[in-house]
Amino acid sequence: MYYTIKRLLLGQPLKSNELGEQKLNKTKALAILSSDALSSVAYGPEQILIVLVTVGMAAFWYTIPIAVGVLVLLLALILSYRQVIFAYPHGGGAYVVSKENLGENPGLIAGGSLLVDYILTVAVSISAGTDAITSAFPHLHHHNVLIACSLVVLITILNLRGLTESASILAYPVYLFVLALGIMIAAGLVQIASGKLPADLHAPIGTPVAGISLFLLLRAFASGSSALTGVEAISNAIPNFKDPAPNNASRTLAAMGLLLALLFSGIVFLAYYEGIVPNVRETVLSQIASTTFGRGLMYYFIQATTAMILVLAANTGFSAFPLLAVNLAKDKYIARMFTVRGDRLGYSNGIVFLSAASILLIIVFEGRTEQLIPLYAVGVFIPFTLAQTGMMVKWMNDKPPGWIIKLSINCIGALISFSVMWIFFITKFAQVWSVLIFLPCIVLIFHRIKKHYQAVGEQLSLNTCEPAPPIEGNVIIVPVAGITHVVENSLNYAKSLSPDQIIAVYVAFERETEKQFEAKWNQWQPDIRLVTLHSHYRSIIQPLTKFIDTVANKAEESNFRVTVVIPQFIPKKSWHNVLHNQSSLLIRTVLLYRRDIIVTTVPFHLKK
């Protein structure tokens, strides 16, 4: 049943040699890996206005120079990550750049920040999309958490089906969103040029504003920079591109930067010109669409595509998180299971882990993850800063042709990213202070995991450890519940292993039953030693595991190996297994109790 459901949801397994078919072309990659960055234009300009409105509408003209600053930062990031793509064509992004150029701990800080950031990306994006859905259908508001979790599961299934299949499905809403906003911005500019919109809706640029301060402007700039989250995803996901991967990735990054710049600047300008004021009941994007088109079909088309892009922004996390986890796992900082490809050639363990962590966040915050946005943004600018600083160190060490220009690009980007990061810490410390706790904890966990792998490797290596002690003999323990073909089958298997000793163990609840069984056993198998255990509390597991523990301890002193052979009969109908689960329960208990014991089952198949 499990296999059937899995095949129905995920499709048939793919062969390893089909991996090339799972690579993305530029069109699909742009949609999948840019959805997070492009969705940021839905709330980035609004974040600027929310800060400026505290000193009045006259301050809204500052959105123009602030937007120019954000675009300069975007240009620096695009150029910097383009250099990262060609310098590190196997992916890894900020983690690999920081680790190789700044050292182990800066690399782990960047990697840990991005891992957490991708989890927050999924939780925040899905919650925002759910809010958009429940705003259109208020009667669903009480089911926010359920809807959000269901959407995470849906996107998880799509990603488990394979990269190209999920890209084929999820690309359409992304391009529809770009088309919708493009039409809205073009229509708004035409209305402005034709004079249909009055020019007195906004304060002229340069208008003096009482109460404005550098601190406030920096805070507005930092808030607007949240529109740049997700820019680094392409540099992490280079292995997902078709060959030549670095060239395709760099062109996709440039296209994403161009689209993001056009959409962001267009929305900022329209919001300024139309005098849009942010409020809790309607988003800035909704107000611009309403002013431009009225509450007609085009307005609802924009709202629908916005809701879809906010949900699908989570897919950037599903694309980049598994690949970053692979790089960390190859370096032994997290479990090796993240390097294993699933049936559909995706890194399914990373996908499932990301899904589970995101659902947990949604449940804990009851679907209200807005307070995580500052944490989400600062988590991006930490690796931004480290990556560009790492590239500066690389250019100064390697000095390739044109290295001064490359160094200047990374230097500007590093300074701006570092400034934005500290503005977030200073202005929103109450919301981002937890970064100072969980990041060191994550780095500590990384070190502990690597230390464990190193210790295991030293013990397993033939070059660094003493020769394994010879095994002097083998003791086989066979738990028996009666004199049946099942037990006979298990004893025959035990004898085939040529052990030094076979011990049959019987757990009795009554003394009389114990004596009767001993008599029958001595007649049936006089050559095999029988040990009977009396259970005062009618438990089979406890006395049996205690006996196995005692034998194993004595065997270990003499370099003997202990094997537990579990008799088990297999009913013809699989659902009958629920009626005969004592053996499987025993196996699980023994495995958890003593990991140095070999445990095997000997099946006996029933014909009826």
Amino- and carboxy-terminal Cα gap = 21 Å
Q: Helical region count?
A: 23
Largest sheet: 5 strands, parallel
Helix content: 55-70%
Q: What's the overall geometry? A: elongated
Any low-confidence stretches, pLDDT <50, length ≥5?
Answer: none
What is the mean pLDDT?
83
Description of the molecule:
The chain has 608 residues and is an alpha/beta fold. It is built from 23 helices and 5 strands. It has helices at 2-10, 26-39, 44-52, 63-87, 93-101, 104-136, 144-160, 163-193, 214-224, 233-236, 245-273, 284-293, 297-312, 314-330, 348-364, 373-398, 403-427, 429-432, 435-460, 485-496, 511-524, 541-557, 582-593, and strands at 473-480, 501-508, 529-534, 560-570, 598-605. Strands 3-2-1-4-5 form a 5-stranded parallel beta sheet, with helices on both faces. Strand 4, helix 23 (582-593) and strand 5 (598-605) form a beta-alpha-beta unit. The longest helix is centred in the N-terminal third of the chain and has 33 residues, at 104-136. It is elongated. It starts with a helix and ends with a strand. The relative contact order is 0.13. The mean pLDDT is 83.
Q: What labels describe this entry?
A:
608 residues, 5-stranded parallel sheet, alpha/beta, 64% helix, single chain, elongated
Explain the layout of strands and helices.
Layout: H1 2-10, H2 26-39, H3 44-52, H4 63-87, H5 93-101, H6 104-136, H7 144-160, H8 163-193, H9 214-224, H10 233-236, H11 245-273, H12 284-293, H13 297-312, H14 314-330, H15 348-364, H16 373-398, H17 403-427, H18 429-432, H19 435-460, E1 473-480, H20 485-496, E2 501-508, H21 511-524, E3 529-534, H22 541-557, E4 560-570, H23 582-593, E5 598-605
Parallel strand pairs: 1-2, 1-4, 2-3, 4-5
